[in-house]
Write a structure and sequence with these properties.
262 residues, mainly beta, 12-stranded antiparallel barrel, two-stranded parallel sheet, 14 strands, disordered N terminus
């Protein structure tokens, strides 16, 4: 049986993962490891878009004791405690959004006139509690370092109903919150943007704006080769869904990745 922290790290290679050996004992620390892979993501072109896209992305994951690098999360470290509590700190990046179709970040042609949202460096801090081998709760804050996109907050609940040496099944639900700057950067329409585009003025408040839910399955063929699959849904609350940029309130996603761990 693998520990809940190992299962969480393994659960989503394209969203927040770094892979360890599936044969790690629950009472031992996860070994240092290096993983390479290739994956595909299918989802909306931006939050609220009614148009979908398929992206092929590389997966790079590495761990050196408490330090780790993940191509999605960035560079960071985690500090677990014996009672199940843990702290995680990462230095990463946000790709922003383009006002045209993009092959490497969010964006769509119907956003023409809205202008680009620049990429930014950010730091994320998370505090969590592995209550049992199958239940985890976590709170997370994401703060921008450059060209502020605003601050994001997340509260997540993770269930792991199945954990074996070859299969792990994970369900995760994440409540999404943003400060006023974040909400109006991604869902607002300023006077200048309204004049340049076809969208009416829109401003919203800080607060809860949606829920991300995801079901993930990880299968290990052997000590080195593995595959991860997931299906998910994002639901947007009125704060975001009332924006003229939002064309679809519910958005489905899918992921598939093949990984090799050294």
């Amino acid at each position: 049986m693998i520990s809940i922290k190992t299962a969480l790290y393994r659960s989503s290679p394209l969203l927040a993962a770094f892979t360890f050996s599936a044969h790690a004992d629950e009472d031992t620390a996860a070994p240092n490891a290096f993983t390479l892979g290739i994956g595909g993501q299918y989802g909306p072109r931006y939050s609220g878009s009614d148009k979908q896209r398929l992206q092929i992305v590389p997966v790079i994951q590495a761990r050196w004791n408490a330090l780790f690098f993940d191509s999605e999360k960035g560079l960071g470290y985690d500090l677990p405690a014996d009672n199940g509590f843990y702290f995680e700190h990462t230095l990463g990046y946000g790709l922003g959004r383009a006002d045209s179709d993009s092959g490497w970040r969010d964006g769509a042609n119907n956003l023409k006139g809205m202008g680009n949202i620049d990429a930014t460096l950010n730091t994320a801090m998370a505090v969590g509690w592995s209550i049992s081998s199958w239940l985890n709760i976590e709170g997370k804050t994401i703060l921008p370092f450059t060209d502020s996109q605003g601050v994001q907050y997340q509260a997540s609940l993770t269930l792991i109903p199945l954990q074996t040496t070859s299969n792990t099944l994970v369900f995760q639900s994440v409540a999404l919150f943003g400060d006023s700057r974040y909400m109006n950067t991604f869902y607002g329409v300023s006077r200048e943007q309204s004049l340049r585009s076809r969208y009416t003025l829109y401003a919203t408040e800080a607060g809860f704006y949606g829920v991300d839910s995801e079901l993930m399955w990880d299968h290990q063929f052997n000590e080195h080769w593995g595959v991860m699959m997931s299906v998910g849904d994002r639901w947007l609350s009125d704060h975001a869904a009332d924006s003229p940029l939002v064309q679809r309130r519910n958005e489905g996603t899918g992921e598939l990745a093949f990984l090799y761990t050294f």
